[in-house]
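anyone seen this seq b4? input:
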Amino acid sequence: MKIAKLAFGLICLAILASNIATMSRWSEARGVYDDICYLRQAHLFQRLGIGGLNTNAALDYDHYFEGKMKEIAFAEWKDPIRWPCHNPMPGGKVVMQYPPGTGLLLALFPQGQQVVPLYIAASLIVCGLALLGIFMARTLPSIAGAGVFGALAVYLMINPAKASYSVAPTMAVCALAGFLTALWLTRDKRSVLLIALIGVLLGASVNFRLPNALLVAGYCLFLAVAFLRSRTLATFLQGLGFGAGVLIGMTPTLIAQAVNAGSPLATTYGSVDVVAPAFDLAVLGQYLRDMQFVLIVLAIGSTAWLLRAGEGRMRQVALVVAGNLLANLVFFLSHPIFTPYYVVPIAMLSLWSVSFAWLMQPEEAGEAAVLRRGPASLEALLR
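predicted toks r here
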């Protein structure tokens, strides 16, 4: 088994090395609107410090963004109301629509060399957790499963993560949150501090992409049902800790929305993105032809398998994941806009959670699970 672990570990490291070699050749001048806007946010933080939360177009008095628009031959570069990724607010300001997290991370690196270090750092976190999973595996099948999934997770840091700068840090957070979710639910005593930390991580992911707020749905549902069933102080504190963690994690976005849109709960997104849900066969067809469909199938299949084959604590992980998958897939599959990365965060959070839950189960429980096939009641799952 040591040889198998070493082999899969080397495979993950080889993919990581290949990714880093590829990333090192990336250009920050792809001409993609989203890229330029994230880089403008980073520029604001580097120039104004915490004041960079204010993305008012009037702050472009050094003509940084105008210069970027000229570089891609954007015809209306002089008119902020026509700038991509920017929207007019009721007060008359024109502000950037994205939350501040991605720009803040990019601002940690020197201008002109920001994207590659961000992706490498996120890839190192993902690869580290992949290696941890391989190390934790105790049987050849689990080593193979952890190795194959780890290799897939590291590869995905190139494609589709390259599609948006916000995806790379989101992938790293999902990997960490998946590990902590399994750790939280497979322990004999559930730690309030641990679930609060998960809340901070998932709340922080909202600073990269607002739709990441949906990643907390399954946790909220699970904690609410647990409290309603038991009505104990312990379950109340679990829910309170998680909610406080989420709020703390997403504080930068709430402040940015207050500064730019006039209220912490007001959105800076335009009407194109804020639309009512409506299932569209064309959008569903795009998902069916995309790599995301494979990830969705893997996430649903692994969750169903854990729900059926896992022991009690592992099934509780499956319940959290199932609630999360349902909420996120209903939202994104009914959203009239398709991108190659919309459902990647929920798929990866689900797969990381299920993978680590299976690896953390007691050895004797894993052997017994192979022999047992009978479904369990909801009451038993929530114990």
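The CA atoms of residues 24 and 116 lie 6 Å apart. Residues 366-383 have pLDDT under 50 and may be disordered. kinda curious what u guys think
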